[in-house]
Design brief:
Number of helices: 8
Distance between the termini: 16 Å
Helix content: 25-40%
CATH topology of the domain at 265-360: Outer membrane lipoprotein wza fold like
Largest sheet: 6 strands, mixed
Strand order of the largest sheet: 1-16-15-17-13-14
């Protein structure tokens, strides 16, 4: 083979590679659109989803944070469910302990007793087996029949039983206590360590007290939703936002139902990053700067640091609805790192780091190298 012929083949090969570089870059595989493609589609949308692009600067950050504060102020919270209710009233299902003490002539504990003088000054007591309040709030006692104790305190029920004994027993004394408080209970279920039914006391237990009695949340508070049911009303609020003794830390009333649900907040990162991933918040708040750092940041080899996009359904301007919004951050500007610290992430946000246009020829040459490398290696071995 002549030198001129070999040189001609090399030139032809280089020419072919140049043509491939020009024509093939647009057809190279990519893990997402370039910044230019996103900007073009925002101006001339070719799909059903219309969106707007907002460049993140100081004015935009301040406006977004102001809207977020207004939105947070109207989010449903537990505080409107607050109400007061007695927790010491007898109700259906309660188990009562009743003891009757008599002096002299007695109905219980041995019949009529008399001392040598005709009067027995000693007291005689009788403790009845556990007495369960029926569905109508009534109990049955010997010689007294059915007594309505529903809606009474233990002291009031005690006086009612004693009043029923007057005229039947000589100087009766009654002791009545609630042994099992069934009607004044709350229910804690879901992602807790010890779910169950918990009685309320005159100590006035609150929501966080009940969760603590159930062994606490099985997950971190920021990943847990409290579903609170009172009567026919149901409200959900993230556990991490409820502070002890705050209006949301409701004083409990009988029949309240508390369910803890694991619902972690996450964001997703696509594009020119080391690894596409879904990342959990794990804390109450995450800034855009923290979100990028957790994902490893833009890949120096392929990313366009001036084209960091965040996809979110944001508040529609001038209405209560939502619209697709893409927020753009340019990390080539030093002030962007300060702005990223003030931009709060939302649950299910999508971060996309665009590919740099300059890396397309390098990607093509990498593919060509992979194609020709086996032939070059084989040629070297045979020679």
């Amino acid at each position: 083979m002549s030198l001129s012929f070999a040189r001609g083949r090399v030139l032809n090969l280089l020419g072919s590679i140049s043509l491939l570089t020009v024509a093939g870059c647009a057809a190279l595989p990519s893990n997402g659109p370039t910044a230019g493609a996103i900007l073009r589609q925002s101006k001339t949308p070719d799909g059903n989803v219309r969106f707007r692009i907002v460049d993140l600067d100081l004015n935009a950050i301040n406006a977004i944070n102001s809207i977020e504060r207004e939105r947070a102020a109207v989010l449903p919270t537990l505080a409107p469910l607050a109400e007061s209710h007695r927790v010491d009233l007898i109700g259906p299902g309660d188990v009562l302990t009743i003891s009757i003490y008599e002096v002299g002539v007695s109905l219980f504990g041995g019949g009529t007793r008399s001392a040598p003088g005709g009067f027995d000054p000693s007291a005689h007591g009788e403790t009845f087996p556990d007495t369960v309040v029926d569905a109508n709030g009534r109990i049955d006692l010997p010689y007294l029949g059915s007594i309505d104790v529903g809606g009474l305190t233990a002291d009031e029920a005690q006086k009612r039983v004693a009043a029923g004994l007057r005229g039947k027993s000589q100087d009766p004394r009654v002791l009545l206590a609630i042994r099992q408080n069934i009607s004044n209970t709350v229910y804690v279920a879901g992602a807790v360590n010890r779910p169950g039914r918990f009685p309320l006391t005159l100590g006035r237990e609150h929501l966080l007290d009940a969760i603590a009695s159930a062994g606490g949340s099985a997950n971190t508070s920021d990943d847990t939703i409290v579903r609170f049911v009172r009567g026919n009303r149901t409200v959900e609020q993230r556990l991490g936002t409820i502070r002890a003794s705050s209006p949301d830390d409701l004083a409990l009333v009988p029949g309240d139902r508390i369910e803890l649900i694991r619902r972690p907040r996450t964001y997703t990162v696509f594009g020119a990053v080391t690894r596409i991933s879904q990342v959990a918040f794990e804390t109450g708040e995450v800034s855009l700067a923290e979100a990028l750092a957790r994902a490893g940041g833009p890949n120096d080899a392929v990313a366009d640091p001036s084209a960091i996009f965040l996809f979110r359904y944001g508040m529609r301007v001038g209405s209560d609805g939502e619209e697709p919004v893409i927020y753009r951050l340019n990390l080539l500007k030093p002030e962007s790192y300060f702005l990223a610290q003030r931009f709060a992430m939302h649950d299910k946000d999508v971060v996309y780091i665009a590919n740099a246009r300059a890396n397309q020829p390098a990607k093509l040459f990498g593919i060509i190298n992979q194609l020709f490398a086996p032939f070059i290696t084989a040629r070297q071995i045979t020679n």
